[in-house]
Amino acid sequence: GFVGSMPDCLDIHFVKEEKEKGKMKLKQVTLRHDDSDVIEWWSTVIGDMVTSLSKRPRHLLVFINPFGGKGRGKQLWEDKISEIFKIAGIVCKVIVTERANHALTLLQKMPLQGFDGVISVGGDGMFAEVFNGVLMRTAQ
To answer: What does the pLDDT profile of the chain (140 residues) look like in tens digits?
Structure first.
């Protein structure tokens, strides 16, 4: 999850916005202590705090347009985004779209129970398709 520990250190992962670019970047802080019991206590306290966040997503549905985002949608997911969700302990079901309106069609038909949210990876068109799919589904 957000916390990984070794006998003498505790790694805490977080995402920080780069203000000058408007992008998010995965960061890490390492806390060290000679006493492994202290490290274990830190890990337990922080882990319990993160687990207690009731509005935190646990399962996400991800649509990727492999041609979106200047043709880098799938690569962006694999190289940057998926790692953040994995570290956070969020399970993602990934669907790589195969044609225009693929996500729109799936969102109207597929069961969404068990998902806390839907994410689009690609350009503006992918976002619009996912948004419209969710909107049309709720209007039914």
So the answer is: 455 555 688 999 888 888 777 777 888 999 999 888 899 899 899 988 887 876 789 999 999 999 887 888 899 899 888 988 998 889 999 999 999 999 999 999 999 999 999 999 988 899 999 999 999 988 87
State phi, psi for 63 to the nearest 5 degrees. Answer: -105, 130
Dihedral over alpha carbons 121, 122, 128, 130 (to 10 degrees):
-30
Is 35 catalytic? The answer is no
Annotated catalytic residue: which of 8, 35, 79, 124? 124
DSSP codes, 95-112: EE--STTHHHHHHHHS--
